[in-house]
Amino acid sequence: MHRFLLRIEPIVWLLFGQGVLIGTILLTSWVLVVGMLEPLGLVPADALAYERALRLGAHPIGRLVLLALIALPLWKGAHHLRHLAIEFGGHARDAVVAPVLYGLAALGSLAGLFAIIRL
Amino acid sequence: MSVPAHPQAMAPSRPGRTRTAPPQRPDQAPFGGRYRSHTLFGATGFVYLLLGLLALEAVWALGGGSASWSGFQASLASPFMIAIHAISFVSVIFVGVRFFRLFPKAQPPRLGPVRPPPAPVIIAALYAVWIGASVLFAAILAGGIL
Q: Residue B66 and residue B143: Cα distance in Å, rounded?
């Protein structure tokens, strides 16, 4: 497992780095509008109505943005939590923690890809 | 034909004789002094993992039809979810500010003949992209454009 984790480290680092950079850029307005302003009724009612949301999300660029919005934060979260676990608990449990977290991120990314295709 | 090198190809064949002290956690870790922001930065992994899963739920609901999408929107309107998003918003801003401050320090001294721009220029460019993209994306989501 340790050898496998070392082999995938460059890919994980790429996804982690993009999760921090692109993930942060996308999440700023997503969290603000979808998670706070729209539930509080501070944006027009039809802004995220089903037809408009589907039209935006099903556009090729929209699909790409949504996939990045799902997958990149998952990889950023998984990698950061793995290292937080190492800092608090040492390397002893890393052979279990890392596969669980990266597995969750990989499964979530695949589910995201399927959800995007389904639009 | 070349093959990828073994990840530990350069490692010694057996442990060296050099005696080293066992690693020790600094006195102030994990929540004292400058370690506090380091630990908080790591803890934002919880928030990003949650936000990635919530985005997945959103896209899944959108693909499930009008009723499914309305149900998802209704679930976001609870005070608990709004509070979660408020905390998440603060976390995302914290990650951006901290990461953009670190970004110039992670650049190589030169890339071939090209030197990276000075740190203030890199930071200004990152903030310009962040603010510009956020305003554009927020305007699209809020129905201001498109």
A: 18
**In B, residues 81-120, which contact A (CB 8 Å cutoff)?**
81-82, 84-86, 88-89, 92-93, 95-96, 99
* A76 within 8 A of A20, measured Cβ to Cβ: yes
Single-letter amino acid, residue B80: F
> What is the 8-class DSSP label of residue A46?
T
Here the CATH number for the domain that contains residue B50 is 1.20.1300.10
Distance (Å, rounded) from C-alpha B54 to C-alpha B56?
5
- Across the 119 residues of chain A, what is the mean pLDDT of every consecutive 10-residue run? 89 96 96 97 94 96 97 98 92 92 98 96
Q: What is the pLDDT of residue B15?
A: 72
Of A28, A46, A116, the CB nearest to B92: A28
pLDDT in tens, B87-116: 999 999 999 999 999 999 988 888 889 999
Q: Which CATH number fits domain A2-118: 1.20.120.1220, 3.50.50.60, 1.20.1300.10, 3.10.129.10?
A: 1.20.1300.10
Tell me whether 0.90 is exceeded by the ipTM.
yes
Chain A residue whose CA is closest to B75 = A39
Nearest to B92 among A24, A78, A118 (CB): A24
Q: Does B137 touch chain A (CB under 8 A)?
A: yes
